[in-house]
Specification:
- It is a single chain.
- By secondary structure, the chain is an all-alpha fold.
- The protein has a domain of 58 residues: Arc Repressor Mutant, subunit A (Orthogonal Bundle).
- Helix content is 54%, strand content 2%.
- A two-stranded antiparallel sheet has the order 1-2.
- Helix 2 packs across helix 8, helix 9 crosses helix 11 and helix 13 crosses helix 14.
- The longest helix is centred in the middle third of the chain and has 17 residues.
- It holds the Pfam family EndIII_4Fe-2S.
- This is Adenine DNA glycosylase.
- Belongs to the Nth/MutY family.
- One of its GO terms (biological process) is base-excision repair.
């Protein structure tokens, strides 16, 4: 079974969410920022931060001229702050080597700091209209159900996943880019993981529905955040983001009293990841601010 492109595109034209990075005038650099921010982070949290970043750093050279600490501070609580450092590094490369513009070619995009296979294809597709398969969790789920009749996609397989989506793309370049966005939108808003709204699905045929919606393997539950090393790291970073000068170790200790060993482990990992630094006199600061 396949997915009828025209039907899905018409649905997308009238049902697409008004996401700020989809609006006219958005540059490839700004699309790149959105894709990095959206990794493992909900749209509702990303949108206001992205809009702030576009105003502050509309071109890569503007970000490159800022310090790592400024970028980390502006990242706020989006999570996985190493992404902010990679964006800062990427901005420097784009400013110095690419004329302040994110490239259109997937292979060239893959050479940039922090840009992986998904992000490279997403930028090429959504910023430049390239006819390339863009595969995320939502797309894999839609294809698994509509095409293969499975409740969920199972373990990722880059080769198989890209081949599946490539086979569905319209031959027309513009329609292919819109189809890619529509496929992703369908998975994000209708063909969701736990409560798919099949009655609202625009697809006239779905192999999973035709098969009687057979159950799939258990969907892995999201890992808890409370009490984790990630939370401890976040608390330590909060202290440094709120201070524009290096702080003493004692202030960091007060930020996580639950488990001193965990706090030490979190602090060490922040240093190893290059998110924070220790000054010659033993104080701690955000990267680039010590």
């Amino acid at each position: 079974m396949t997915i009828e492109a025209g039907t899905l595109i018409r649905w997308f034209d009238s049902h697409a969410r008004d996401l700020p990075w989809r609006r006219s005038g958005v540059t490839a650099w700004q699309v790149l920022m959105s894709e990095i921010m959206l990794q493992q982070t909900p749209v509702v949290r990303v949108a206001p931060i992205w809009e702030q970043w576009v105003r502050r750093w509309p071109v890569p050279s503007a970000m490159a001229a800022s310090s790592q600490a400024e970028v980390l501070r502006a990242w706020g609580k989006l999570g996985y702050p190493r992404r902010a450092l990679r964006l800062h590094q990427c901005a420097g490369v784009l400013a110095n080597d690419f004329g302040d513009v994110a490239p259109a070619d997937v292979d060239t995009l893959l050479t940039l700091p922090g840009v992986g296979a998904y992000t490279a294809r997403a930028v090429a597709c959504f910023a430049y209209g390239a006819r390339v398969p863009v595969v995320d969790t939502n797309v894999r789920r839609v294809v698994a159900r509509a095409v293969h009749g499975r409740a969920n996609a199972g373990n990722p397989s880059t080769t198989a996943d890209l081949a599946d989506v490539s086979a569905l793309l319209p031959t027309d370049r513009r329609r292919a880019a819109t189809f890619s966005a529509a496929l992703m939108e369908l998975g994000a808003t209708v063909c969701t993981a736990r409560s798919p709204r099949c009655d609202d699905c625009p697809l006239p045929r779905c192999a999973w529905v035709a098969a009687g919606k057979p159950a799939g393997t258990e969907i892995r539950r999201a890992q808890k955040f409370e009490g984790t090393d990630r939370q401890a790291r976040g608390r330590l970073l909060d202290v440094l983001r709120d201070s524009h000068a290096p702080v003493e170790r004692a202030r960091l200790d007060l930020a996580w009293l639950t488990d001193p060993a965990q706090r030490d482990r979190a602090l060490d990992s922040l240093l190893v990841d290059g998110l924070i630094e220790q000054t010659d006199d033993g104080l701690f600061a955000l990267a680039g601010e010590g």
